[in-house]
Design goal:
Length: 658
C-alpha cells in the first residue's frame, strides 16, 4: 500500500500552493486524504495551508498527527513553533522549537525563531545567544544577522569572545541590513572588553610616547572590529579619537622613515576613510601643517612625473587630512590597488555626484530662510552614510500600522493600491531610500533644498538599485503649486528649521489625501535645553561660522567639564562636522513641547496616532499600562516632564488626516 501520492499529484498540489490558491488546495488535500490517510506529505501541506488561511487549530492538529505517525519528523515541531508564536502561545512555541532542534541540531531557522521570541520577551542576552547559534550553523543567514544587529542597538556585552568578534565583523561587512550608527555605542563598549585594546587606551591616556608608531600600528590593526568601524561610520568615542589623531600624526611626521609600510598603509587607509566620513573633524597642530605642506609638494612633484604607485602611502596619508578630490592631480591616479577604495570614496564617488547633480529636477527657491538653510547644506550635506537598513520585503500599509500599534482609522486605507509617498526634506537619502523599500506598490517623491545632498542620495539609490524614487530640489513651501497629493507624507527633522514651522506643516497637510498618514519629527524643547544654552553662548562669541571655527569650538568642549558640554559629548552628532554644525550652529532652529504639538494637530485636523520609537514606547509602557495612554498626549507630556532626555533625538510620531 502506498502511503504517499505519486509525483504527478504532488507537483500539481505544490503548483496550487505556489499560486496561493489556498482554499481550493485545502479541498483537494481533504479529498486525497481519503485515499492516503497516513500521508505525511499531505498532512504537512494541509497544515501549512490551514496556517495561511488562519485556521490555526486545524493546522495544529495536522502537525500533531504527523508527530503521531513519525515522532522524529522535525519540521512538524518547527511548524508548530511558528503557529504557537502566531497565536501568542510562546511557551508552547519555545517547547516545539526546542524539540525540533533536538531532532535536527542543524535547523538554523529554529534558533533564529527562538531568538525572536526571547527578543520579544526583552531577554536580549538569550536572544543573542540563539542568533549566534544560528549563525554558527549558517553564517550567511542574513535574517539572523540582521536580528543580531537589532539586538545590538540596546545591548552591552559583559564578555568578549572570538565567536562574537567573527559575527560582528560579518555584520559590519553587510550593506543593506543595518545602519552602523545604530550599534556604534554597543560595539565601542565591546571593544573595551578587549584587554589589548584597553592597554593601548590606558597607555595613550598616560603617555603618548609609550609605544613607537610602528608598534601602535600593528597593535591597532589586530583590533579588527575597530578597523571595520573606521571605514563605515563616525567613531563616537574621544579616547579612540585621541589614538586615531596620534596615529595619523605619527605616520605623517615619520612617513620617510617608517619600516612597516604595508601595515602603515592598511591603517592610514582606514583612518583616511574615517576622516572623510567625519568630514575632517579632527584638529591639527603646526607641526602637522608644516609636514602636510611638504607632503603635498612631494606628491605634486610625483604628479609631474606620473609616479603615483610608489607613493601610495603618502597619498593615503594625505587623504587622512584632505579629501583627494580637492587636488587637481587626483584624476591621474589609476590602478593603485592598495588604495582603490580611497580613490573610489574620495575621487570617483564625488565626481559621479557632480554629474548626477546636473540631472536632478530643480524648482526655484525664493524664501529667505530656506535659501540660508540651503546654503548650509550645500556646504555640509550630511550624513555621509555608507550602509543602510533596508526592508527585505515591502509590506502592506495595514501590516505596518499593526506592527507599530498605530491608532488609525484603518477601514479608509483598505483601497490603497498604488501609494504615493512624499519625503519632505530627504537630505542625503537615508530616510527616503528606506521608505522606498517599506511599502508594497509605492512610489516616493523625495525633496530637499540642497542639490549636493540630493546628488549623494541619488548616487546611493542607484548603487542600491532602488527604482521607485524621484529626487527633486525644491522648498516645502512650494509644494502647494506642485499639483500632486500623497497618501503618506514623512518629514523628519525638517519643519523645525523653517522660518514658520506651522506654515510648512500646513502646506504638507494640504497635499495629504483624506485619511492619509503623516510622520513628523520635531525637536523637543525640554530635551534640548542644554543645546539652547550653548547656542546662546555661541551667539555671544559672535564668530563667523566656518569649519575651522566649529573645530576650534569643539576642542573647547572636549576639555570642558561643563555639564551642558558633557551631554553634547554623549551625542553621536558631536562626531562629524556637518552633524555638529546642525546640532549647535544651524542658521534656524525651533523647539516644541508636546502641548504645542497637540495644539497644532488640532488646528490642522490631524489625529495623533502614536510615537514610532520602540525603545521609548517600551519605557513608557513600564509606567503606563493602559493601552489608551499610548495615544494620549497629555499623558506623554507628563511622562516627558519626568524623563527630560526621553526625546533627546526628537519627537517622531504618526498622525492621520481626519
Amino acid at each position: 500500500m502506498n502511503f504517499e501520492p505519486n509525483k504527478k499529484i504532488i507537483e500539481k498540489l505544490l503548483k496550487n500552493f505556489n499560486k496561493k490558491n489556498y482554499s481550493e488546495l485545502r479541498q483537494q488535500i481533504l479529498i486525497l486524504q481519503i485515499e492516503y490517510p497516513k500521508s505525511i506529505f499531505l498532512l504537512n501541506l494541509l497544515g501549512a495551508t490551514n496556517n495561511l488561511l488562519n485556521n490555526f487549530e486545524e493546522a495544529i492538529n495536522c502537525f500533531k498527527k504527523i508527530i503521531k505517525l513519525n515522532k522524529n519528523f522535525s519540521d512538524a515541531y518547527y511548524n508548530l513553533g511558528i503557529i504557537y508564536k502566531t497565536i501568542n502561545k510562546t511557551e508552547e512555541s519555545i517547547k516545539n522549537y526546542t524539540e525540533c532542534i533536538k531532532i535536527d541540531p542543524k535547523k538554523f531557522e529554529a534558533y533564529n525563531n527562538l531568538g525572536n521570541i526571547y527578543r520579544d520577551k526583552d531577554n536580549i542576552e538569550k536572544a543573542i545567544d540563539k542568533y549566534l547559534q544560528c549563525l554558527e550553523i549558517n553564517p550567511n543567514y542574513l535574517i539572523a544577522l540582521q536580528n543580531f544587529g537589532i539586538c545590538l542597538q540596546s545591548f552591552y556585552f559583559k564578555n568578549r569572545s572570538n565567536l562574537i568578534d567573527k559575527h560582528i565583523i560579518n555584520l559590519l561587512k553587510q550593506d543593506k541590513i543595518l545602519r552602523p550608527v545604530d550599534i556604534i555605542n554597543s560595539l565601542i563598549s565591546y571593544l573595551y572588553l578587549n584587554s589589548e585594546f584597553l592597554e593601548i587606551i590606558q597607555k595613550i591616556e598616560i603617555l603618548e610616547k609609550e609605544y613607537s608608531i610602528e608598534e601602535l600600528v600593528d597593535k591597532i590593526l589586530n583590533i579588527k572590529i575597530l578597523i571595520c568601524l573606521l571605514k563605515i561610520t563616525p567613531i563616537t568615542d574621544l579616547k579612540i579619537e585621541k589614538i586615531l589623531k596620534h596615529l595619523r600624526k605619527g605616520i605623517l611626521l615619520n612617513i620617510n622613515s617608517i619600516k612597516n609600510k604595508n601595515s602603515s598603509l592598511k591603517l592610514i587607509n582606514a583612518i583616511a576613510k574615517q576622516c572623510f566620513i567625519n568630514e575632517y573633524l579632527y584638529s591639527i597642530d603646526s607641526n602637522e601643517e608644516k609636514a602636510l605642506k611638504e607632503l603635498e609638494n612631494k606628491i605634486l612633484n610625483n604628479y609631474n612625473k606620473r609616479n603615483f604607485y610608489e607613493h601610495k602611502l603618502e597619498i593615503a596619508c594625505l587623504a587622512a587630512y584632505n579629501s583627494l578630490n580637492t587636488y587637481k592631480w587626483s584624476n591621474k591616479i589609476h590602478n593603485v590597488n592598495e588604495i582603490s577604495d580611497l580613490v573610489n570614496q574620495q575621487i570617483k564617488e564625488p565626481k559621479l555626484e557632480e554629474l548626477l547633480r546636473n540631472k536632478i529636477l530643480y524648482k526655484e527657491i525664493n524664501d529667505e530662510v530656506s535659501l540660508k538653510v540651503k546654503d548650509q547644506y550645500e556646504n555640509n550635506p550630511y550624513p555621509r552614510w555608507t550602509k543602510i537598513a533596508l526592508n527585505s520585503k515591502p509590506n502592506k500599509v495595514l501590516n505596518f500600522i499593526n506592527n507599530y500599534n498605530l491608532n488609525c482609522e484603518k477601514t479608509k486605507l483598505k483601497n490603497w493600491n498604488n501609494i504615493n509617498i512624499l519625503v519632505a526634506g530627504c537630505g542625503t537619502g537615508q530616510h527616503a531610500i528606506t521608505t522606498a523599500t517599506k511599502y508594497e506598490n509605492s512610489f516616493v517623491t523625495a525633496i530637499d533644498l540642497s542639490s549636493k545632498s540630493l546628488s549623494y542620495a541619488k548616487r546611493k539609490a542607484d548603487e542600491l538599485e532602488i527604482k521607485n524614487i524621484d529626487f527633486i530640489q525644491m522648498d516645502i513651501l512650494d509644494l502647494k503649486n506642485y499639483g500632486k497629493n500623497f497618501e503618506i507624507i514623512e518629514s523628519v527633522g525638517v519643519l523645525h528649521h523653517m522660518d514658520d514651522p506651522y506654515n510648512g506643516w500646513q502646506t504638507l497637510s494640504n497635499i495629504l489625501k483624506p485619511h492619509g498618514l503623516m510622520m513628523i519629527g520635531l525637536y523637543s524643547k525640554i530635551a534640548r535645553q542644554h543645546i539652547k544654552k550653548i547656542r546662546s553662548n555661541i551667539k555671544k562669541i559672535n564668530k563667523q561660522i566656518t569649519n575651522e571655527n566649529i573645530k576650534l569650538f569643539r576642542e573647547e568642549i572636549i576639555i570642558s567639564n561643563d555639564n551642558n558640554y558633557k551631554l553634547i559629548k554623549e551625542s553621536p552628532d558631536f562626531y562629524s562636522l556637518s552633524s555638529l554644525r546642525d546640532l549647535l550652529f544651524h542658521v534656524k532652529e525651533h523647539t516644541f513641547s508636546i502641548p504645542e504639538i497637540s495644539k497644532n494637530l488640532n488646528k490642522l485636523n490631524l489625529k495623533f496616532c502614536g510615537f514610532e520609537n520602540k525603545i521609548t514606547l517600551k519605557l513608557f509602557k513600564q509606567i503606563y499600562d493602559n493601552k489608551k495612554d499610548l495615544y494620549n498626549l497629555d499623558i506623554w507630556d507628563e511622562f516627558e516632564n519626568s524623563n527630560s532626555r526621553i526625546f533627546a533625538g526628537m519627537y517622531q510620531f504618526w498622525c492621520q488626516k481626519i
